[in-house]
Write a structure and sequence with these properties.
Elements (H helix, E strand, L loop, with lengths): L11 E12 L10 E16 L14 H17 L8 E7 L9 H19 L19 H16 L10 H8 L2 E7 L2 E8 L7 E7 L5 H13 L3 H23 L4 H21 L5 H12 L4 E4 L6 E7 L2 H17 L6 E7 L1
Antiparallel strand pairs: 1-2, 2-3, 2-4, 4-5, 6-8, 6-9, 7-8
Helix pairs in contact: 2-3, 2-4, 3-4, 6-7
Length: 349
């Protein structure tokens, strides 16, 4: 049994939120933009100081596999900032970000641990300016922006434990928040631009189905296709990148009427899902749900993230339509024996 945390003093607590990638999955790795948004679900890291914590006591409540990965995060953090002293502690994860479903659970863990690293660096009077990009060493860069960049940079470095070459988008959404466009830069964190939420708001449903494919395998297959200049893969990435560009334009230049933007984003989502399906990233259950949503009046929807199952979203014409569609689609999934690994939830953008 894991040892109980030392509750003689309140724990340090760091919280970040899950994400939904709206456009640009996979294409973002090859120089195209992406568009994403935070979700209401969150994950918190509570750090309880201890006089002594053996390896088995660092991460109570996690499976052995999860605890090994979490332990590797600590090793990675120590290697990034060798002078940092990580005191004995227990780390407790609490929250409702679904795991292994494409909602950024690993990114939230990394952002929270990065927040703890920054906290310790301040306590230990460590200068982390060497982690900043060289062109930003100017003293005129505001302190809060420096800290925000450092949080993102450290989190994305930690994310390598879960994803060998993370794009920076998942950790960027968890660290920076809001509706955001990302524009990749070679060997650097992407440029990020916060977008204004639509008025009166864009409503959507999001959920997930069980994964049928392995993310690492799916990404590897696409990488080979790009390296071999497979026309089908190259063309799909170009189209997905252009659709992401168009979706960003909808947020920047769309009409004030949310319905107009909803219809425009729905049309783009349908096209993007078709292209992702041509790359065999879809699943039959997800397609059934998306097809049914169109028959029920949705302007469009698509998978979100790596594919092979996992997250998806469905655009809706207002809150009332979203609530009604959630009820109808939930009943439809039950009737068709379609398993939802995360139930349909509402989100207003």
């Amino acid at each position: 049994m894991p040892s109980e945390p030392d509750t003689s003093e309140p724990p340090l607590r760091f919280t970040s939120y899950g994400k939904l990638l709206l456009f640009g999955e996979h294409a973002a790795v090859y120089g195209y933009p992406a568009l994403g948004v935070n979700l209401d679900c969150s994950l918190s890291l509570e750090v309880y100081p201890r006089d002594h914590a053996g390896d088995a006591g660092h991460f109570p409540g996690l499976s052995p596999r999860e605890a090994r990965a979490a332990g590797e995060l600590l090793v990675t953090a120590s290697a990034l900032v060798p002078e940092l002293l990580l005191p004995p502690a227990q780390y407790h994860l609490q929250g409702d970000v679904p795991r292994s479903s494409g909602f950024g659970s690993s990114a939230t863990v990394c952002v929270n641990l990065a927040g703890y690293v920054l906290h310790l660096a301040r306590e230990q009077h460590l200068d982390l300016n060497h982690l900043l990009p060289k062109y930003q060493h100017s003293s005129q860069w505001p302190e809060d922006e420096k800290n925000q960049y450092l949080l993102w940079y450290i989190a994305n470095h930690l994310e390598k434990v879960f994803h060998g070459s993370p794009s920076g988008i998942d950790t960027g959404l968890a660290a920076l928040g809001g509706v955001r466009a990302f524009f990749p830069r070679s060997r650097k964190l992407p440029d990020s631009m916060r977008l204004e939420s639509a008025k009166p708001g864009i409503w959507l449903l999001y959920g997930s189905v069980p994964r049928e494919g392995n993310t690492k395998t799916l990404v590897g297959d696409l990488q080979r296709g790009m390296l071999e200049e497979n026309p089908k893969v190259v063309s799909a990435m170009e189209d997905l990148g252009e659709l992401a560009h168009s979706a960003i334009d909808v947020f920047q230049n769309g009409e004030s009427d949310g319905g107009t933007q909803t219809e425009a984003l729905g049309a783009l989502a349908r096209k993007a899902h078709d292209r992702l399906s041509e790359l065999n990233l879809n699943t039959s259950d997800m397609d059934l749900v998306l097809d049914k949503s169109r028959k029920l009046g949705s302007p469009g929807g698509k998978l979100s993230g790596a594919g092979g199952g996992g997250a998806f979203y469905i655009l809706c014409n207002g809150e009332e339509a979203a609530r009604e569609m959630r009820e109808q689609l939930t009943a439809y999934c039950g009737h068709k024996n379609i398993e939802l690994s995360h139930p349909l939830s509402l989100l207003r953008i």
